[in-house]
Design goal:
312 residues; alpha/beta; 8-stranded mixed beta sheet; 14 helices; globular; binds S-adenosylmethionine
Length: 312
């Protein structure tokens, strides 16, 4: 049974021109021309031992929201396409899609953000945009073609790490995508990395793996002692820990699920956690290695992925 309470933050204002200021454009240009090519060389050996192919390794927050959409646009034209945005939350970033003039954008979330969604739809009407925008509350693992038909592109930011059954979500997404369609996803921090519960480490750097290292009672204590108010926790770790909304899988397992469900990785970017790197060689890592002998060291350092997957 879905909770129909409107979770829209009271101070939400939709900003349609996200990422288009001179400062943003300058930063994106420097990222594209200088930073990313430099990182490609500097970090070429980082995560080289993982079982899946990584095309580029970046430090945290390696690509702006608009740059991510441009990245997708390199593989499939967003203009005139039908896009599904899964786990859209408040839809604060929908301006980044609308700028490309897609034919249709559908947003879905498990929770209701009706007032925020209305602001996006009001803007589309007022700006006379050519895009049809709709929102639905529902579980993405249960979506089928009867509701949505076939899509060209499926996008998600900060959702896969929250899917309790990623395999079911991927199966549903695969069936919704047309042949040759693209699924873009960015997700992290991953469960085995620093702050993998989106909560641990908010007090001290060395507590960033508490979700993996503390026993149940000590972790509950830690959680209670550092929980902030509802407004802060709405899209932060506090709420997700309470709901246990995590996939809890290693970076390698994401790729095993992609393979199993038929998705073909076209481009893979990994980002690493500087805070995790800072703890390398300390007793925290000794404990991690002892407690999780089946997990490779890289998994404790790899913060997230940005992937372009294709249905072929
Ligand atoms: C961290 S938020 C990200 C929201 C938004 N994409 C963003 O970038 O700000 C993750 C979102 O995924 C949604 N979510 C998690 N599991 C879901 C599911 N099975 N079906 C639909 N939405 C889901 C959550 O409700 C939440 O709004």
């Amino acid at each position: 049974m879905l909770d129909s309470t409107d979770l829209s933050p009271v101070d939400f204002h939709f900003h349609p021109h996200i990422g288009t200021s001179i400062r943003d454009r300058l930063r994106d240009a420097v990222d594209a021309v200088i930073r990313r090519p430099l990182y490609k060389v500097v970090y070429r050996k980082k995560f080289a031992n993982l079982s899946y192919k990584i095309d580029l390794v970046l430090p945290e927050k390696g690509m702006s929201t608009l740059a991510r959409r441009q990245w997708v646009n390199q593989y499939i034209q967003i203009r005139d396409s039908r896009i599904l945005v899964i786990g859209c939350g408040t839809a604060w970033d929908f301006g980044s899609y609308l700028q490309f003039k897609p034919r249709e954008v559908v947003g879905i979330d498990l929770y209701n953000f009706a007032r925020c969604w209305q602001q996006v739809q009001d803007y589309v009407v007022q700006a006379k945009l050519p895009t049809k925008v709709t929102f639905h509350q529902g579980d993405i693992a249960e979506l089928d073609k009867t509701l949505l038909g076939e899509l060209d592109i499926i996008c998600s930011d900060a959702v896969f790490e929250h899917c309790q059954s990623l395999e079911n979500v991927l199966k549903a997404m695969y069936s919704l995508l047309r042949l040759g369609g693209i699924m873009y996803a960015s997700y992290g921090p991953l469960w085995y990395c620093w702050g993998g519960d989106h909560f641990s480490g908010r007090d001290l750097l060395e507590h960033g793996y508490n979700h993996l290292l503390l026993d149940f009672a000590s972790y509950q204590n830690y959680y209670r002692n550092h929980l902030k108010d509802d407004a802060y926790e709405l899209q932060n770790g506090g709420r997700y820990v309470g709901l246990d909304l995590f996939s809890k899988i290693s970076s390698q397992e994401y790729f095993e699920f992609y393979k199993k469900t038929g998705f073909h990785p076209i481009s893979v970017v990994a980002d690493f956690s500087a805070r995790a790197d800072a703890l390398l060689g300390t007793s925290v890592f000794d404990k991690l290695i002892k407690r999780f002998p089946h997990i490779t060291l890289d998994e404790f350092l790899l913060k997230g992925h940005l992937v372009i997957l294709k249905k072929i």
